[in-house]
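Supplementary Note 3. Input sequence used for the single-chain structure prediction.
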Amino acid sequence: MVLGIDEPKVTAWLDQHVEGLTGPYTFELIAGGRSNVTYRGADSGGTKFVLRRPPLGHVLATAHDMAREHRLITAVGKTPVPVPRTLGLCTDVEVNGAPFYVMSFVEGTVLDSAEKASVMTLEARRAASFDLIDVLAELHAADVDEIGLGDLARRDSYIERQLKRWTTQWANSKTREMPEMDVLVKKLQDHMPVQQGATIAHGDYRFGNCLTDTTAGKIVGVLDWELCTLGDPLADLGYIGIYWRDPGDTIVGGNDPTGIEGFPYYSELVERYALRTGRDVSQIAYYRAFSAYRLAVIGEGVYSRYLNGAMADELPDMESMKNSVDTRVIWALELLQNLK
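The predicted structure, written as discrete structure tokens, is reproduced below.
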């Protein structure tokens, strides 16, 4: 028995609603936690598939909207962006206790550490890096009306709306006064660039949320569409720059393979994006700073929940967690120093 899967009911649903799959099925947890839970399944003939459901014991269904995520992946599947093929959506909570959807299984590696990238040739590392940008350019080139996402969200004033949202979040979750954060918010408000059109904004785009063919150096699947909306495309490019480490960089980055030999400089990615899209990237430091700010606010929220005992089942390094918030705020201020 696999936790989170009602095997008899899910088996019956799959047999009835997903063409090409035949039970009995096996299920294996791939990833779970506070984010949506992902299982790798296989049918009686060995055909693999993926099932996604909200985290066990979640409270707000809107925070883990399976129908929305299924809609996004289905729509993006009409573009050149590589995504798994959606196979079915179940909104009847009587089947599995929560909505879920099923999609095709894509073979690839989630490059969330230098260790996973160590098997790649230097050429494949460089090729995968530029393909990461090429895929992002394709995502930002998608006609949202044509693929059925025109009504997904407001398109204008993306950064302005995000700043209001995260400033409120900081006020509600902060555990201490931090004058540097106040200065940062003011600078972000004062230097806000003019939005260059409105595109699909993935919201969490990086190697760690993609499947990579490590031999060919190609992105074969973009995952984790929970934060996707419509907005400023440069926010995604700036977000990559939060995780990216340049060759020889001694700063320890989490959940990213870059920094080892073969991966290009972040500036090369920005140049590649500019060539592919024609967009002005001269203010990319702003978008990196904004992304650092956003992650700092999220980090403070997690830190606050630990302090208040909401996650008593886990014991992280609290001091490191707190310091990571401070570090991101200071780094964001440094990025904004040279903006005019």
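The CA atoms of residues 246 and 265 lie 5 Å apart. Residues 114-336 form a domain with the Aminoglycoside 3'-phosphotransferase; Chain: A, domain 2 fold (CATH 3.90.1200.10).
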